[in-house]
Amino acid sequence: MCLAIPAQIETMNEHDRATVVLDGSRTNVVLTLVPEAKIGDWVLVHAGYAITVLDEADALATYDLLRQMDAAATSEAG
After folding, report:
1. Which residues on adjacent β-strands are paired with residue 20?
2. Which CATH architecture has domain 5-77?
3. What is the distance between the terminal CA atoms of the chain, rounded to a whole angstrom?
4. Where is 4: in which H helix or E strand?
5. pLDDT computed for residue 18 by the predictor
6. Where residue 1 falls among pLDDT bands split at 50, 70, 90?
7. Which residues contact 34 (CB under 8 A, 6 or more apart)?
8. What is the per-residue pLDDT for 11?
9. pTM
């Protein structure tokens, strides 16, 4: 299964690259697939690429669901 994670764009450069914040951690992503993205936007990140722009409500709802899935998996494993 492939999973994309919501992240917020913090900085951008002229080479279609950005730094995004993922759950408090920063990582670099490629913006080629979302040329409309700008600083402050939320994007879904998969394999180092921002693949779509999200509104903040959808991004936070997706992030909340991912946290719930992680908590459920952790409790089942323990």
Report:
1. 9, 27
2. Roll (2.30)
3. 23
4. none
5. 98
6. low
7. 43, 50, 51, 52, 53
8. 98
9. 0.85
pLDDT digits (tens, 9 = 90+) for 25-40: 999 999 999 999 999 9
Instruction: Kindly state the tokens that stand for 57.
Output: 């409500």
Q: In this structure, how many other beta carbons lie within 10 angstroms of the beta carbon of residue 56?
A: 12
Tokens 């914040």 appear where?
A: 21
Cα dihedral 50, 61, 23, 27 in deg (nearest 10): 0
- Calculate the average pLDDT of the chain: 93
- Contacting residues for 62 by C-beta, under 8 A, at least 6 apart: 6, 44, 54
Kindly state the tokens that stand for 55: 């509104």
Beta strands in the chain (DSSP E): 5-12, 17-22, 25-30, 42-46, 49-54
What average pLDDT does this structure show over 55-71?
92
Structure tokens at 32: 């080629």
